Amino acid sequence: MEYIDNLPPMDLMRSEKMTFVQLIIPVESAHRAVSYLGQLGLLQFRDLNDGKSPFQRTFVNQVKRCAEMSRKLRFFKDQIHKAGLLPSPNPASEPDIELEELEIQLTEHEHELIEMNSNSEKLRQTYNELLEFKMVLQKAGDFLVSTGNHAAAQETELSENVYTNDGYADTASLLEEEMQPGPSNQSGVRFISGIICKSNVLRFERMLFRATRGNMLFNQAPADDQIMDPASNEMVEKSVFVVFFSGEQARTKILKICESFGANCYPVPEDLTKRSQITREVLSRLSELGATLEAGLRHRDKALTSIGFHLSKWTNMVRREKAVYDTLNMLNFDVTKKCLVGEGWCPIFSKTRIQEALQRATFDSNSQVGIIFHVMDAFESPPTYFRTNHFTNAYQEIVDAYGVAKYQEANPAVYTIITFPFLFAVMFGDWGHGICLLLGALVLIVREKKLSSEKLGSFMEMLFGGRYILLLMALFSIYCGLIYNEFFSVPFHIFGHSAYKCRDATCSDAYSVGLVKYRDSYPFGVDPSWRGSRSELPFLNSLKMKMSILFGVVQMNLGIILSYFNARYFGNSLDVKYQFVPQMIFLNSLFGYLSILIIIKWCTGSQADLYHVMIYMFLSPFEDLHDNQLFWGQGVLQVILLLSAVIAVPWMLFPKPFILKRLHTERFQGRTYGMLGTSDMFNEEEPDSARQPHHDEFNFSEVFVHQMIHSIEFVLGAVSNTASYLRLWALSLAHSELSTVFYEKVLLLAWGYDNIIIRLIGLAVFAFATAFILLMMESLSAFLHALRLHWVEYQNKFYHGDGYKFRPFSFALLTDDED
């Protein structure tokens, strides 16, 4: 035991030792101190104002200002995106500015952009109206020329037109002399011209026909140019229309319908000379407005580009400032002493670095009073912190997804680094598929720096985060594939010649006649001659099923052994005596014994039926084994193991609750005073302080029921968990048979035809099935099953997972969501 206790500590085996600290910070150096701690990222603050709402906290106004600046920065980012510009990836190097100065700059930039956008929208609206008017003049003029002879015959005044667009006052002034409405001729034919969205033309015409009861003539033609919608900045197709009608009532109806459909109506004179003059004036105005718009856009783009150079730096600065003030709001503000009081957790190894950062903050803020940093006792359980790197982080995340380890609890991630990819490979064993996974993993690892700085999709982000898991899964898949001797389901004589040959000289078909062994066994893995033989499936089923049981028993024993190390570490001798020992006895009396029988049968080549041995070990323990006996004294050993398994169940169930009850009774009858203290010890503590002790009342019935549930769960789980490991056999068999089907029924079948097209089609189908079914779906299935084996069958033997993660205040952990 001394040797075990003297082993060097592992970074991942136990979480970092934590200490509870208190900070007393003068007001003048509080902001700088918290900023330096955020750069360090090794202190987790406790919220001492948990009972207060966000609006009752000390620095609420500063948080609001930072939130408003974040809104402005998001507005700038949206404007840059809409303009089609790219923000500068490398922020401009400029001296640091104060938050107040940045706030003034952001306000000025926002007002400038809003004003430019408003002017641009007005100019764009006027430009669109002139462009529409130009197209109406051109298209409607063609309609009027085609109907001019009929109009001249009727001598009808057609110059009285309707103009309903209020935003077109500037252009209308050009036509005041030419377009003064004359006396209305109620009995004459009149017309209204305008422009409408092309998608509404059919419904518009149908509505006009119904409203006028067919007493109108509707002409329309598609506009030559598309119009930009100022709201969405998208190009919209429009059509020019002219409606001929008669009567004031019809005119009123048509105007209302035009308004409801969003159609813009423009005056078109019948006189060709006037129409030409107005067209020239409109073209002149369009040219001027176009130049003005281009200049405005260039000016706005220049301003956005200037903002884009600093956007990244400003965003980080505001995000950090908001995080600092949010953290300051977690501290208690002592008005009388003019200081802030904070509490938190930090790793023991970081105390020196934290003290150096606080001293630097005191010096840089020219404070006359230093920051007090001292360690305190805490009755609250500390947070869990494991130092990980790029390689181990993904495996730690797999464990944390089940539950964060309790403080100083044995960490399953240490063994998961090897066992998880290995169990995956047992189900996915094929060295051809493993090479494909390896190439994918190597691509992600080689491009690690580039991909880590890019924004990936959800699937690619998940794949990139697990690149090192994928790497080990691929390597173990190649290893297991070499053992199974499968390369896309095809066996190869890699390690020498087969140990089997045809029975006699007349043997021409080894797959149907059978094989005999004539030399030493194949040196590594499965002999390639098993593939396609009559006994292939029984042989591989037997091998993989027994192998799955062995792996399961070994991993479950590892879990129980880790529970022993947990109990020794926390000084819990009851768990060692009344949990670890009976669990080891029960599991190995049954399934450990089965594993030994499997190994003996493999080594001796016995024909004993292990199903019969295990079943009659329970039904008839004293019956003679006959041909199923594997070694001398097996029957006596089975009786001893069975009695041990039966005794282990009450051993787990009864002693621990009664011993806990006796210890509790002794403690409160005056025999033990270790946990007692004076009543005034904690009167001066903060209401939410972690230094307050929390005494849980002892409830014997609750403890006994909990122990009974735990014992029953272990006894039943020993059977069900061992059976659950048979999924290793089932998925390995399914993967192998599916690969065989695709190879024989797709690739070989297509290759049997002497036609290059059929062969190419067969090769494409085989590649598609391999990539999407075997490499994606099958790998995902094996991944999930390996995950379940670790979470349920392995970790429930020792892992409580009821801790909480160490979340230090760190600028490096801030994300865009913090805005």
Report what the structure shows.
Mean pLDDT is 84; it is low at 149-187 and 671-688. Strands 1, 2, 9, 10 and 11 form a 5-stranded antiparallel β-sheet that branches. This protein has 25 helices and 13 strands. It has helices at 2-5, 27-40, 60-82, 99-146, 148-154, 169-173, 201-211, 248-260, 272-328, 351-364, 390-402, 413-428, 431-446, 448-452, 458-465, 467-484, 510-513, 536-569, 573-604, 610-619, 634-653, 655-667, 700-724, 727-751, 756-794, and strands spanning 18-26, 44-45, 189-197, 217-222, 227-228, 235-236, 238-246, 264-265, 332-334, 339-347, 372-376, 500-502, 515-517. Helix 3 (60-82) packs antiparallel against helix 9 and helix 19 (573-604) runs parallel beside helix 23 (700-724). With 819 residues, the chain is of the alpha+beta class. A hairpin with a 6-residue loop joins strand 5 and strand 6 (235-236).
Write the layout of secondary structure elements.
Elements: H1 2-5, E1 18-26, H2 27-40, E2 44-45, H3 60-82, H4 99-146, H5 148-154, H6 169-173, E3 189-197, H7 201-211, E4 217-222, E5 227-228, E6 235-236, E7 238-246, H8 248-260, E8 264-265, H9 272-328, E9 332-334, E10 339-347, H10 351-364, E11 372-376, H11 390-402, H12 413-428, H13 431-446, H14 448-452, H15 458-465, H16 467-484, E12 500-502, H17 510-513, E13 515-517, H18 536-569, H19 573-604, H20 610-619, H21 634-653, H22 655-667, H23 700-724, H24 727-751, H25 756-794
